[in-house]
Task: structure prediction
Amino acid sequence: MSLLNYEELFANLRMNTSGSAGDSRKSPHKVAMLLAVIDLITAGVILQNKIYFDQSLKDAFANRFKEFATEKDRNNPQLPFFHLRSSGFFHHHIKPGKAASYANLTTASSIGDINENIAYAYIDDELFELLSNLAVRELLKSALYKSLSPQDRNAILDLGKGWNWLECECTVNDYFAMLNQEIRGERYNKTEHRRNLRAKLNERSEAAIEFKHQNISAILLEMGQPYIAGYKPAFNYQHQLKQVVLAYMAGHSFELDRILETAQQPINLPVDSSIDWLRVLDQELPERIPRVAEPQRDYLARKTNYADCEMRNRSLGEAGEKFAIDFERYRLEQAGRTDLAKEIVWASKEEGDGLGFDIRSFNPERDEELFIEVKTTSSGKYQPFYITDNEVAFSKDRAPNYCLYRVYDFRREARLFMLHGAIEQHVNLAPKNFKAEFING
Result:
């Protein structure tokens, strides 16, 4: 859901009214409760999307309630905590065995009704991510007081010459529209997307839009997600942009699940005759791109890691190895060594996993064996991959005769680049798993 959708919901809460028709006033309880929740998120008291009906919430509610209450209003925090369930974005996690009791409640007459039936409340995941941003919090707090004019809204979100939240939101939406098409293998026009997007932004150039798309690629890589291959990751991004991406991911879990499902679908091998082998080898290796340093936090929007899915996708792995073998035959034949091309061995298939390499081929210039490890992705060339301790050790022990083939963009127009020698020369190796042994010492 867009930020503006939440703004409308906040500005149009269903409020209890009292007094005569000509002098009716709205109860401040729901406004005070939501402001209290925002205050606790801002203060770092609420770190996860779990809002407990505890003393910190009651105290924060009391502080906000004093701003609005008249002598006729009573400090009853259980009422908004219960009735905000009608808002569409505020939900209750019911205690075990209390589903029937909770279903019979039409109001919370006492604090005991809350304590007995509700473990905690939570808001939409996307809204929780949105509230991590200061400008968004101010916008939604203001929406609780009044329905904002566009001028008021822009004043709150204004960042000078920087991209505001709504511009980032439009750009992220456009990026994911392209990513979905790319994952499904559909054609789309990046230039047309940029031009259409430009009309929704504050006089941004096409070059600025393209760089923002590259920023989104970098953020997705950090999150373990696929990215658009044509947008090289640029890591010096605006911190707010990452918050917008996280909010999008939190609110579009089904869409992200479909992307991951596509990553696990069986691979149809390219037909050899349709492959332009001259274009397959990419001589330009990935650059070492500096990563943005930022405070650590537990991201709500973290999804299943795309690289994890590809690592477990045996179909993708085998298809990539077959593709690499076909390329090797082409490479050796082009070097005039048809004899060596006939002796290539698909070692991982014929001799089993755990060798430390997948293909036994040859260096035609020196008539020496070449041990090839293949890592395949449907995403772009900067997508991280997993490599085992055994594979890393083998690459070091056999460095002069070792090469890792990184096959990328496999579902569209597969290409590969080569990393010769010990793998640690080319990439940063981050520890991922630990071996658990029932052994002392």
The longest strand covers residues 368-376. The radius of gyration is 28 Å.
